[in-house]
Amino acid sequence: MKNKSIQKVLNNSNFKSYSGLILVIIVVSVFMSIRSENFMTPTNILNVLRQISVYGILACGMAFAMMTGGIDLTVGSTAGVCGALVTKFVVEGNMPLVPAILIGLFVGALLGLLSGVFIAKTGIPPFIMTLGMQITLRGACYLICEGKPIGNIPDSMLSLGIGSLGGIPIPIFFMLGTFVVVGIILSRTSFGRSVYAVGGNYQAAHHSGINARRVIMYAYMISGICAALAGVILSARNASAQPTAGNAFETEAIAACAMGGVSFSGGKGAVVGIFFGALLMGIINNGMNLLYISSYWQLVVKGIIIIAAVIYSIFNKRSKIQIISGGRR
Predict the structure, then answer these.
(1) 271-290 and 249-259 helices cross at what angle (nearest 10)?
(2) Where are the alpha helices (DSSP H) in 95-211?
(3) Cα diameter, the chain
(4) Is the whole model's pTM more than 0.85, yes or no?
(5) Full DSSP string of 6-71
(6) Which residues does 111 contact at the CB level (< 8 Å), separation at least 6?
(7) Over the stretch 259-291, which tens digit does the pLDDT of each residue have?
């Protein structure tokens, strides 16, 4: 019975899709365990998960934009703006934490929706639209922070970033909760199926009765909400709202999505793959830190990883198309 169960898992199409990524994670983990005795300790494993909590949440939002065939370069700046707003409301406005967070999530949703509306209604390329918004929002973040960090965060907010529950850091719960919600949306709702349809073939989705423009707008709105949540956690982790908070974090989110199997041309991706992609990025970052590798070289490695992931995605898609076309013959 056990052999049949194992064989069933190994033959599962979803497992086969992520088997290569899982193998890379295992190989890198074994290598790091040999090079550093501190790598496989429970404390360090929790530290890796805590470190990827912000990237993981951002990647969940980024996935919606990428699955529709676009990209969202605003996630880092949106995280900075919303984190700064919530911190300012709590510290300087003496606002209770929960209402402040809800306002921050609402602002993130509006910012994402704004990008989605312009992309869907005007046909402006997502890269150009979100790049412009990224620059604008980064300036807004500096204005909110007045060019300096906002500190003196109350303990209630600090606990969201550095607190723990049952020995597990609280940011991990937020990340896992986000993955669960996003997974349900993508796999169990008509909107999730519409996201795949629009990304797979926009015209076909439109002619089949799907409001493709609305799907794109909502996809970017969800990305904004995820970015806002990540921004709040990031401010709590840093014990202050920084005007540079979230700077270049979009590269980490894109890398996690790309390695997790989210196609840049849209229509493909799953939460499990995104999680494994974010986990691999976290393991690599943590491993390079433990080996005292220069931060400059870390940027080089991350860039190479993104390029390799995109090339793999392209060749994987081509091979599947050839298999399908060969089968039809």
Answers:
(1) 120
(2) 97-122, 126-145, 155-162, 170-188, 190-200, 202-207
(3) 69
(4) yes
(5) HHHHHH-HHHHHHHHHHHHHHHHHHHHHHH-TTTTSHHHHHHHHHHHHHHHHHHHHHHHHHHTT--
(6) 74, 78, 81, 82, 133, 137, 224
(7) 888 888 888 888 988 999 899 888 888 888 888
